[in-house]
User: Fold this.
Amino acid sequence: MNAGPEHAVEPVVEFAGRLRASGASVPPTRVHMMLRALAELGADSLSAVYWSGRLTLCASPDDIERYDQVFSAYFGAGQGRPRPRVQVAPAYRMVAAPADGQPETGAKNDGPPPEKLATASRHEVLRNRDVTELTAAERAEVNHYLSALVIAVPERITRRMRAAPGGTIDARRTIRAMMRRGGEPVEVLRHRKSRRTRRLVFLIDVSGSMAPYADTVLRFAHAACRARPGTEVFTVGTRLTRLTRELRGRGAAAAIAKASQAIPDWSGGTRLGPEVKEFLDRWGQRGVARGAVVVLASDGWEQGDPTLLGEQMARLRRLARRVVWVNPHRGHDGYAPRTGGMRAALPHIDDLVAGHSLGAMEDLAILLTTTTSCTPWPGTHRLQDATEAVSDA
Amino acid sequence: MTEIRDRSDASGPPTDGVVAGPEELARRLDAAGYLADDGLATAAFLALRMRRPLFIEGEAGVGKTSLAHALSAALSAPLIRLQCYEGVDAAQALYDWDFPRQLLHLRAAEAAGVSDVDRLEHELYDRRFLVARPLLRALEEVPCVLLIDEIDRADDEFEAFLLEVLSDFTISIPEVGTVRAETPPTVVVTSNRTREVHDALKRRCLYHWLDHPTFEREIAVITRRLPEVSERLASDVARVVERMRSADLLKPPGLAESIDWAAALAALGARELDADLASRTLGAVLKYQEDTERIRAEIGEMVVETAG
Assistant:
């Protein structure tokens, strides 16, 4: 790279191509910016090339990690440069489930008897069936209902004021109105605090044991993303993946397909504790979980140490407005939260709800519209039942 | 690059004229009490030269905001700060009309028996009744350093609006006309990354991720900022803070916290760090009860280990 900047065009464009191939989004305007930066710095040192690219082609710490890799592969060693800190997942160990820790499959609900099916509406029939027991056609129908689900998102009061017929006096608007009438106080205008939607955050377990249900929850999350663009979606399993971008699209099928591609650990193991921790470290504590309604969908099978999960759930509970745990097995008869992870998390969640059927997801949609955690709702006493079941056991 | 020359000539910065390169900018920042590494100096230099806003992201307390302060000192340009928060809107960022004064003017005109309504109305929307907020002020007071702090706290709508202003550096006020900056001000945008800022805005800017400083740099910054702190104490603090950062805390201490801690220790007359002093002043460096408890149990060990 001893030549002037004009000779840098070709390698820079090629380098940008490599970066794109590695999955980064590099629009041509950014490449142009890199060339300009390079011209300013003079392309005579590797460091100048490194920084002109890093400052213009990257837009997040994750990008920098990838940039460093591609840079050192393309331009030779990019050694000794400051890199963003990379979270290293702590080693985990298998922990024996508690003594009575059989898989949480209560007696399976076989659905209503056939003669009843004939009279109930199609929707009603599908509503209460476990999604894993559906045929492909029924599944498609359920997916259709899911995508059409109206998810009213919870609200909170902001400090911003909005004009309103009642409320406190809005001095500014009143004076403005007075000025329009030559300074005569004709009408008193009022305003009150406006309301904004609370953020919804989904953490979806995509491990092997959750695989049959994860798709349903993902579709639900997609419907929520459309209802409120600020919604954040993450999957957990053996690693944390942010799916918010992938689920932004309008069509459910396309968005789900994109999301599935982005998840590297479908049907893998579960390390809920470390994953929830990583979520809180990287996103939650910084603001994503603050004051939000967090929906965690998992069966509570934890391969790691349940104590860590308990600690992290307590931390999540302190940050979030409300923590809702969706457990598909919750919908089965005779369910009791017996797995280590579920028992560790139980004291720190507001609601434990089912997520095994269309009906359960519809109930969840209703639950999410209530803002305060103290509001009595069917879901809350169901949680108490479950807690009692544990203490009885 | 005349605007840089003008700016620096204004009141005699340590070196002459133009900012020739990242090294020189680093020297000037140093003179202003800010130690910038290669990457940051390059980023700031390019922001000046390419007239692009500099978007700085990083953990809380790594020196994002202080960079803007130092840049303003290094360039001898005033600093104009826009602190973002949830619900910040155009009236707080751009301009607002001074309604009470307008009303007074109206009443006074009435009392004086002014009958020329058109003229009166024209007077009411005069520049003197306009309250300039940070963005408008920045355009009017070029050369200056505009700091848009904690953009991640503002709403998405505000981001879109900011994008518009930062793209062409013009603000149009229907009653007055368009305000345009011939040369754009130096803009520093900071984010703690509590949420992802929209790509379109980042694309307008040079992006820099500011990491925790290296051990040597941290000592240098502490002694630079706090001349009363002994070299020994600074290195003790830097070493223990480095250990804390790798201890997986809820809020790992940033550079701002190590400076606070060193200042607290110096205020107690410490020349070097010992377990008792450290334990008594932990509140200056750790901001979560859980973290304080954990570290308090290990602090003796940390201090001894690092002293060896």
